[in-house]
Amino acid sequence: MLLDTIGDKKTALFLIMSDTDDTFNFLISMVYTQLFNLLCEKADDFYGGRLPVHVRCLIDEAANIGQIPRLEKLVATIRSREISACLILQAQSQLKALYKDNADTIIGNMDTSLFLGGKEPGTLKELSASLGKETIDTYNTGESRGREVSHSLNYQKLGKELLSPDELAVMDGGKCILQVRGVRPFFSDKYDITRHPNYRYTSDADPKNAFDIEAYLKHDLKMKPEDAYVTYEENVSGD
Fold this sequence. Notes:
Elements: H1 25-46, E1 55-59, H2 71-77, E2 83-87, H3 92-99, H4 103-108, E3 112-115, H5 121-131, E4 133-145, E5 149-161, H6 165-169, E6 175-180, E7 186-189, H7 213-217
Parallel strand pairs: 1-2
Antiparallel strand pairs: 3-6, 4-5, 6-7
């Protein structure tokens, strides 16, 4: 598959498998293991430690393709070689179910996390804690009645979660939360993909743009009027 050449020039490699049948999960794990190892060796041996073209692995349904061996170590070392891995999960608990104690190590080595919404309690609790708190002002008033009436007014400063788990659970579907290492989190609108200048080339914009894998792999010879060819005539005897 020439996996060691992916970092030499712009390349697109698609690894497509069923997300409901785990029979061939080991193949995906093997490919990723070989890919990371070969690219790291190529970067060290030929390019002085960094690939000339950044290799970004978009691992969709990361919890349904099987465990990638030593991923907790790989995510900590591949970044310096111009390689990155983007794990896409439905809930953070999926990562812990698959990688057990190493899940926290994997999350800790990710510089960026993007929350698109969800209702899994563990994910919401950890995200709420990572967002931190804000300072709010409160004041209480009191009145005592007896022989004389007295009033009291008390001012306080308290810490409140920036977004509590119940607020995250009902977050607007058009919003997202982006956390980048070293800066405060961003609460932002999701990007409208239909506004992208290249959206017109997608199959969503025009079904004619859909990639036909069967036609691509078909090797039947199709002659065009301008093609040059040589014709041979053979006579086959009855013998």
